[in-house]
Fold this sequence. Notes:
Blueprint: E1 2-10, E2 16-25, E3 30-34, H1 41-48, E4 56-61, E5 64-65, H2 71-80, E6 81-84, H3 96-102, H4 111-114, H5 120-132, H6 148-161, E7 166-170, H7 178-195, E8 198-203, H8 206-212, E9 215-220, E10 223-229
Parallel strand pairs: 3-8, 3-9, 6-7, 7-8
Antiparallel strand pairs: 1-2, 1-4, 4-5, 9-10
Helix pairs in contact: 3-6, 5-6, 6-7
GO molecular function: ABC-type phosphonate transporter activity; ATP binding; ATP hydrolysis activity
Pfam families: ABC_tran
Protein name: Phosphonate ABC transporter ATP-binding protein
Amino acid sequence: MIRFTHASVTYPGGVAALKDLSLDIAEGEFVVVVGLSGAGKSTLIRTVNGLVPLSGGSVEVGSRTVGDLNRSRLRALRADVGMIFQHYNLVNRTTVLNNVLMGRLNRVPGWRSMLGWWGRDEVERAMRALEVVEIVEKAYVRAANLSGGQQQRVGIARALAQEPTVLLADEPVASLDPPTSHTVMRYLHRANRELGITTLVNLHFLDLARQYADRIVGLRAGAVVFDGPASAVDEKV
Ligand code: ADP
Ligand code: ADP
């Protein structure tokens, strides 16, 4: 589903964030990428939806080679790839429901949705996404009035409303306390299992990775230093 072939990224200024990295992620897998700060985790994830361009090699998502896509095809790719952020990136002044509907902008282009005029079927779809993360009762609450854990659940719902085939989560629990981190990881896991969405999550806590991942990829200085089932990871990654 996601295939990196000799992928490298060198940022302007010369930092080599990914170095000749090859990795194959199968459809439906739940993969957690672990590594210290600066290892290249965030860069790796951002190459999948073309937010960071490769300097060499390729990344393929399904049948698409990301670097070869023109603007409209890149937009179509991004519609298929949901993204979840460390700081949730919600629009705080509007409601939870409106935030989730923003995930639909990728699917329902046009001036009605741009203006926030959504049909009933779209609202129902957004509500179903909120049901997955069990936060329907907050639909009409302003996003700013939710706790961090609740905001991240809305972040997941927004991504799910997009009906993605791939979900990317860049340090989704780094701003949350341990119990809340588990809650958020459980919902990501649920989305993977129940909806079959191929999921790639960056984490810096190995414990959490071992509890939820099918497979753990360890990154260090832009290269894969470990790749195996969660059960095979020792403490030293
Ligand atoms: P991680 O997510 O594992 O912390 P990153 O992918 O964010 O790692 O960063 C990998 C390396 O690339 C680091 O050395 C970081 O400083 C550098 N880097 C990340 N983003 C940029 C950027 N936009 N410009 C220049 N260097 C960057
Ligand atoms: P930044 O200052 O980090 O670029 P912005 O102030 O631009 O952030 O806030 C927009 C953030 O929301 C960006 O990080 C962007 O990637 C993210 N974003 C944009 N569109 C969507 C979307 N449809 N779903 C989720 N996140 C989105």
